[in-house]
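Appendix B. One record, verbatim.
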Amino acid sequence: MIHVDRCRAGVGRRRLAVLAPLTLLAGLLGLAQPGPAAADPEVGSARLVPLQVTGPASERLNLILLGDGYTAAELPKFHADVDRHLNVQWSIEPYRGYRNYFNVYVIEIVSGESGIRCDPDDDPPDPDRITPLGLHYADGCTNPLARGITFQAYGTQALNRYLQQLVAPLGVTASNRQILAIANTDTYGGIGGTNATTSGGAPQGPLISPHELGHSLGQLQDEYPYSNRPDPGGPYCTDDCAEPGSRHHTRLTEQQMVAQQAKWWRWLGEESESGGTIGRYESGMYASSGVWRPSEHSIMRWLGFHYDQVSREIMTQRISGRRDTDAMALSSTRTDRPVGPTDVLWVETQHPVHHQLDVHWEVNGVAVPATHNSRNLPLADLDVRAGDVVRVTVSDPTEFVRDPAIRNGPALTQSRQWTVGAEPTPPTPVQVGFTAATPTERPVGGQDVVYVEPTHPVDRVLAVTWRLDGKVLPNPHNSRNLDLGALRLAPGSYRLTATVTDPVAPVTDPVAPGGGTQTLTWTVDNVAGGTTATLSTPVATLAGQTPHHVYFERFTMGLDPTDDRPGFTVGEFRLDRDGWFNYFGWPDAPAGTPFLFTPTGTVVKSLVYGNLGSGGLSRAVFERTEPGYGTHTVEHRAIDAAGNIGPADEFRATVLPGSAPACTRTISGERAGDLTVQAGVTCLDGARVAGRITVRPGASLVVSGGSVAGGISADRAAVVQFLGTTVSGSVRLLGTTGSVTSAGSTFSGAVRLTGNAAGEYGLALVGNRITGSLTCTGNGRVADFGARNEIRGQRSGDCARL
């Protein structure tokens, strides 16, 4: 028998402890039971920690988080992983907007060993590690790319036992719960199915969670083009090419979707929440051809991006419908008996974070006017008679849903109906107070809709008074909801209260909860978080209001999201106005490793990351990419624990082909007279040269910063580079055999470029200021790589269009 001990621990958290004797754990593991001396009473013990309770479990979608492979000493790490995973989840729609639809329960489980079985990044992978839930990489002991974390049979039995003993008594059932097991590993991994799993410590672990919930909760399919990462998945079908049953995959053309009003036809042409536009993109469901998905790179294709509108619509339906319950929660006055003609009917709706549900009342099919979206209907004001039928319809006007079958279906629309009886209902004493409300244990965001649910006397409506920093807020319709966004609050923190009182009965004790009044208090966090981007050292920086840096081949960005309050703050960035991408550092790298951008991306475990070229940040290794040399805009922002989305900062980065050659001689400081570069690579690092520089055939010159007063001439040099320097006098480059690069430099004299090797991408003149003439002959292509030059004099030849 498992003993359930109810106790208090921590502020605002009720802990329910389950102590699993080692004999039970041994039985689950199929092990011989050790004697008392060998028993460790902590191993296998479990404790239930309610993190967020917004209503009765039977009326909510219950997210159950369990840890596996965390020892007793590692439970703080487990809770830190939970905090990180949840805050990333709450930053992604529709979880962000429907956060109040969830109850969140955490089950701490003490493991005797740290980590899980067959972790492919262990050296070597351990095939014998035993943990309470039996999580393991299914083929991790033999496959270094293994990523599927699954339950072993004994772990599934243990899971069911924990659920039965800890959460089932709360009203959590298989139809209204979602399981997410977090494995104590830093290795990428997870799986969907009925019970989702994820990696607790991996940089992308918090992104695996919403992806796998897309499978488990949303019944969404993978959109990537392979089953085995390095290899294309091949065509979707060869013989029987029927339309796939997936709601976000198709073989129809856009024209056919519109004509047949099929699949995602209502969203076609919309700007995608995950970047680009909603359309028709080939590959998905592990096939590289023959099937199409709605967007270029949603979270069901590449971790880091958001759900696109098509998947978001499905997820909204599943969250609102409480998974398999398929019904939006709605409590009300009892409908199984007549109501009195002077009763006050009531409903308690669900509460999205950023908007309100619509409540529509009717009597005998005729709409009751001017109810102001009230959750209460006093029948005494309507002169109803016995036999009249009163009906209420509650619906969600969310912009996330366009399909009428979903919008008008049971997951987003619910009705209740009553028949009016002849006799008034005798009133019974009702304790004045709140039965539900926006959680008070955490700050609410400055755009949130805060809600309360008071008790319900049969013959009157209790009054709710809202105050902000002690000042009463207008509430002419006695609303149970307060839209903070409509108040247009200045940035800052505020104290919000809601007080319920009985307008008829006297207040017997204004202080004691459960007396004649009750007050709830929230902290309003209307201070958005921010991000600081730390970039690798550029070869040059261009002038302008937006920071603009120039790099050869690559650059890195470390992003530090910060906020003025505790809780994990999410960082996001966006490349070239494409979809917002979660900043997780660098995959399979230590925490703090910056994100790397290159023209065609970097391969990590057979996936491509940081691609500046065609197709977006993430790619499969076999997908063709046009290199992304040129100028890119990177925006970055923070989303704090209260859900506030901070303003985006941005910078520009121009990435050029090639590199700076290794210096054989370096000159800095003052340099009098002329300078001749005879051979090798001469680098001027912040030097100030008073005379003219001459570069002989085969030699190279790199000028970084500083100034040259007498001009520059080079005849058949190997490489010539001007990086953020100032040159007075004329510049003449003839027949350079390697490359010519000038970025962020200022030239006050005439510049002549003749017969220089342009290479595959052309001579690079990037973000320069040239006050004299610019003459270019016989060089082939001359490119600014998206960073325009300011040229005040005449330009001709190859440079005429710069």
